[in-house]
């Protein structure tokens, strides 16, 4: 989640909010995500966790991870906003 974070199951989430999907140069994205114009926002991340990547980002390597509980999903997004925000 931090700026120097290593890639694991996916690219670093540092600075994800407002970033266009598939744009970290060091990560080997799928062609589907590289050609996407998706911008990561609270809404698109929420949609990813409600509908799944096969709907939001079809053809990508993202694993299915749904969070059906609204409060849990909102809490996770709030945490991500805080934990991945670039330092000012």
Q: Supply the CATH superfamily name.
A: Cytochrome c-like domain
The proportion of residues in beta strands is under 5%
Q: What is the level-2 CATH architecture name?
A: Orthogonal Bundle
Shape: globular
Q: What do we call the CATH topology?
A: Cytochrome Bc1 Complex, Chain D, domain 2
Mean pLDDT: 91
**Unreliable parts:** none
The tally of strands reads 0
Task: Note down, in words, how this protein is organized.
It is a single chain. The protein is mostly helical. It has a single domain, classed as Cytochrome Bc1 Complex, Chain D, domain 2 (Orthogonal Bundle). The longest helix is centred in the last third of the chain and has 14 residues. The chain is globular.
Topology:
Elements: H1 31-34, H2 42-51, H3 53-56, H4 70-83
Helix pairs in contact: 2-4
Keywords:
Cytochrome Bc1 Complex, Chain D, domain 2, 88 residues, 36% helix, mainly alpha
Summarize the structure.
About 35% of the residues lie in helices and about 0% in strands. The chain has about 90 residues and is an all-alpha fold.
């Amino acid at each position: 989640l931090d700026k120097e974070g290593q890639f694991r199951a996916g690219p670093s989430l540092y600075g994800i909010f407002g970033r266009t999907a598939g744009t970290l140069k060091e990560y080997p994205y799928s062609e589907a995500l590289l050609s996407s114009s998706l911008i990561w926002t609270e809404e698109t991340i929420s949609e990813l966790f409600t509908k799944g990547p096969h709907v939001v980002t079809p053809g990508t390597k993202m694993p299915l991870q749904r969070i059906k509980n609204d409060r849990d999903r909102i809490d996770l997004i709030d945490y991500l906003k805080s934990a991945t925000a670039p330092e000012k």
